[in-house]
User: Fold these one by one.
Assistant:
Number 1:
Amino acid sequence: MTKKALITGITGQDGAYLSEFLLKKGYKVYGAVRRTSSINTARLSEMGVLDDVELVSMDLAEITNIQRVIEKTEPDEIYNLAAQSFVHTSYEQPIYTSDIDGIGVTRILETIRNLGGTPKFYQASTSEMFGKAKESPQNEDTPFYPRSPYGVAKLYSHWMTVNYRESWGIHACSGILFNHESPLRGLEFVTRKISLGMAEIKNGKKDVINLGNLNAERDWGFAGDYVEAMWLMMQQEKSDDYIIATGQTHSVRFFAEQAAKVIGIDIEWDIDGLSERGFCNKTGKTIISVDSSFNRPAETEHLLGDASKAQKELGWNPSCDFESLVTMMVERDLERVKKGLVWF
Ligand code: NAP
Ligand code: G4F
């Protein structure tokens, strides 16, 4: 029988990759979208799956809406990807972020509980829960120390997912995913800001990319690899929590250097007191400048994941390395800028 999946947050980066993945596996895919004043299905269109998924209206703020959608669509698996996912915004909108990223998850879990414990449930947890990490690399036993309202809200929903598994026998998994990127990444995130910025510099449409903390380190993987891990977790007989990461970490500074190489620029750095700039070693032109307004009130400085449990139990391994990821993102943005196509 055809399996049915409901993906919340289908209009986001991971929603597009997961839709493609599940459709290829033969799933009927329902995608939950919240009401917005303009159409935001661009990623699904670019992925070529918009006509193959069935969109349903659902907002994580509204439990009656969640109940009706789950009862009507009767999914076998729910992938909860919906969230206010931008850490910087969470400092300005902590209550909204807590409601959607925290309580919103309990709204889904309560609905599943009231339906007798099915469907299976996947929660999009995050390495941001490690925050001021107590050890490196981080694994499933590393203590959490979130540094943002986003991280705190996600930690609440992580533990709710564990609690509903243990209390009510729900097949509920929490995927603790480290940063994953792609050409479909939102423009506010640092990797895409850099990849688009480099493409614009190459095409004479921009001079400088303004960034915040250049020394923050992230374990960056490819979103296409990470959605496979979500699915693998849901296929296990016993639900559990898994770290998904590449096991390599790089600074924002290094990401910018690698992205510049793709457009043929070698960056050198010039520090004068508190101000710093990155410039082209041939022309001397500044291409990176530091703008403290992008700094966060409390930073997650270093993330590095140990995904050995997922490798052993799920057979999951990332296929795309750091250099290929950076190249893929810059090259796609170069194509878009040349065609005058820049969206989301
Ligand atoms: P994304 O591109 O920002 O997508 C977020 C999705 O959530 C969008 O479809 C958005 O809809 C939807 N959404 C926001 N508020 C909602 C609400 N109130 N009701 C219903 N839907 C709502 O995020 P992503 O990168 O794909 O990440 C997917 C999930 O994984 C998120 O939960 C994120 O926190 C988590 N995560 C991401 C990473 C990563 O590195 N990408 C790592 C760990 C965990 P609109 O299109 O209408 O805005
Ligand atoms: O790209 P970012 O905004 O991603 P961040 O904060 O790590 O969050 C992402 O990954 C999490 C997983 O750990 C997800 F849960 C979350 O939903 C999201 O997908 O920032 C990465 C780093 C930060 O340290 C930030 O301070 O880059 C630093 N940074 C430096 N300059 C910047 C900038 N970040 C942004 N967004 N913009 C800058 O100009």
Number 2:
Amino acid sequence: MKISVLTMFPQMFDGFLCSPLVQRALKKQIAEIEIMDIKEYVQGSYRDIDESPYGGGNGMVIRCDAVLPVLNRIRTEQSHVIVLTPAGNTFVQKTARRLMTADHLILIAGHYEGLDQRIIEEADECISIGDYVLSGGELPAMVIMDSLIRLKEGILREGSSEDESFENDRLEYPQYTKPAVYEGKEVPSVLLSGNHEKIRIWRKKESLRLTMRYRPDLLEIREPDEEEQEYIRQINNE
Ligand code: ADE
């Protein structure tokens, strides 16, 4: 998979590109990442990338003639073009699963107050990473790349993403490791019992407990099955 990012602040990606996840993906040739500085591609260095909006209003808007020529140069039949904006569909784990199979993703990170609508019209979709406004699309681009790359085969240990939060519309159960007792705080004894069925049940119930507490909305997206309904009854009676 190739990911091209169009940005005016390429330096923001320096740390991200050094992260162990990205390094592993690059070394194993699982992903190729190209950070493109829009400023370098604007014809004539005198030209501004942003302008005040027609019709008046606050802030600056990124010009379409700064972005579209670069986009058209790198875009192919295989490209899937995404504009990062708070006014897009919310990015969730299912979005990551859908996008991870793309051959070529182009992520357009806007800055200032926004992008000229003619850029947005050229995109295949607009994605927001949540209901808050950031100063630009760079952090969202990194969030999306991180979540996609870690799903790729050969990046994580096999099966290790399956039980994760959101993978089946539930939050992940709590995890413990050594020491078994730390300053009087004990690891739940069932996890030390070696009884796989009891551990499975404990995890399922604790995953439900967390989901009920922090993300009850997920229980509406996927309704509890019979086993889960029983655990919910038990939790409510505790
Ligand atoms: N740009 C600014 N805020 C954003 C958000 N929440 N998601 C995606 N892009 C953005």
